[in-house]
Amino acid sequence: MVSRKITVTNEQGLHMRPASIFSQAMTPFSCDISIFFKDKKYNAKSVMMLMSACIKRGAEIEIRCEGSDEEEAMNKAISLIEGGLED
């Protein structure tokens, strides 16, 4: 398992479009990918779960990946968050 804490930089947080971009990018990975925010766990492959988390700009989240391609998944997740989720 790998995990990393990161701050969300997207101006609008993980609203519909960025949440969709993120979940679609995570879906091809076979490992389990979770986001922890405010002591709750969210499935990072589910756009509805991500939107329900109400993650705003400046929020610190923890991304956890567990499985055979966990390193690749983590690298992609961090790249997306640091890049502002193309928004």
From TrEMBL:
The organism encoding this protein is: Oribacterium asaccharolyticum ACB7
What keywords sit in the KW lines? Answer: Cytoplasm, Phosphotransferase system
Where is it mainly found? cytoplasm
Q: Could you tell me which residue ranges the HPr domain spans? A: 1-87
Tell where it localizes: Cytoplasm
**Keyword presence, Cytoplasm:** yes
Q: Which InterPro entries is this protein grouped with?
A: HPr (IPR050399), HPr-like (IPR000032), HPr-like_sf (IPR035895)
Q: Which GO BP terms, alphabetically?
A: phosphoenolpyruvate-dependent sugar phosphotransferase system
Q: What does UniProt give as GO cellular component?
A: cytoplasm
- Protein's name according to its UniProt entry: HPr domain-containing protein
